[in-house]
Amino acid sequence: MADEMKNTLEIKGLTIQYVTGDEVVHAVTGVNITIPVGKTLGLVGETGAGKTTTALSILNLVPDPPGKIISGEIFLEGEDVLKMNDKRLREIRGNMVAMVFQDPMTSLNPIKTVGEQIAEGIKIHRKVDDKASLEQAKSMLELVGIPGGRAGEYPHQFSGGMKQRVVIAIALACSPDLLIADEPTTALDVTIQAQVLKLINELREQSRMSMLMITHDLGIVAEVCDTVAIMYAGRIVEYGTLEDIFDHLRHPYTKGLFDSLPDIGNRRAELKPIRGLIPDPVNLPPGCAFHPRCDYAKPECSQQLPAIKRISDMHYVQCHLYADTDMSML
User: Fold this and answer.
1) What average pLDDT does the structure give for the chain?
2) Cα→Cα distances 269→128, 264, 266, 281, 292, Å
3) How many Cβ atoms are within 10 Å of 271's Cβ, its own excluded?
């Protein structure tokens, strides 16, 4: 594990584009993220905001072509991932950093037993033989609540929730320092979602592992995250602690996300959806990309990109609403 005073992950000024023919997709622009050892950051936003592209960049897996990392640095325990050679990248993937993908149905190989799939990473990174790696794979299954005796079974013999547990077992098999969970409960029903989240949280706390939780579900954020980054059209528009975002939110987009949640205490209350759609990343609006959907938009919002306003050491917002002297507009 990393030294307690260090950050497991630091992303600085990350900009990623996809170039297809004459079109340029502005997937991620100027993203800054820090995850201290043993902490969880929630990366929140609508589909198409750039969350998964950001996650793939941490493993240096942005498909090239068409994807291109234009600028930025990604430090994994102080080492810049973007400067690693192929050999070093193979060493860290699945070992120092591992990823749980959102659909377990497509994450598993249908013609290999689950035991073989868990053992594969152990064999590569821990340099052990087939027998020892399979025994460790059985232990990992037990750890995620599946009998070790089922290691010889194939993915089709497991339910959706069980498959996701297998995927988590694969990701955690080599005790990574950073776990990237990309909407890990999207394909699961509500009851199984709760079980999987509880499992991830418990395993993270046991090993002091850091985690990047990618989601659009604010309930999941409340349950597992220490800090939160709100992403819109490739940019982080608000960043802060869980308390900052839930109790002292500042950005109109963040407010829109919370307003669109159902009020359990008042079943007659109408939902307040954010009007319009997330913009086409090929043709982003000028100025603040959120201004066509924003109820608080001012003339300058459509003309220039807002500066980052710091509310505290941990909390900042990128929005024209706020002068340095007034942070209470919403």
Assistant:
1) 90
2) 59, 9, 6, 33, 26
3) 9
Q: How far is Cα 36 from Cα 226, in angstroms, rounded to an integer?
A: 10
Strand partners, 267: none
Query: Within 10 Å of residue 24's Cβ, how many Cβ atoms?
Result: 16
Here the tokens at position 107 are 């994450």
Q: What are phi and psi of 40, to 5 degrees?
A: -120, 130
Burial (CB count <10 Å: 0-12, 13-18, 19+), residue 130:
exposed
Work out the number of other CB atoms within 10 angstroms of the CB of residue 60.
19
| CA–CA dist 149, 283 (Å, integer) | 53
Half-sphere exposure of 97 (CA within 13 A, CB side): 26
Whether the pLDDT of residue 96 is over 80: the answer is: yes
Residue 93, token pair as written in the block: 């993937």
Q: What is the pTM of this model?
A: 0.90
134-187 tens-digit pLDDT: 999 999 999 888 999 999 999 999 998 899 889 989 998 888 999 999 988 877
Is the N-terminal amide bond of 66 cis, ω within 30° of 0? yes
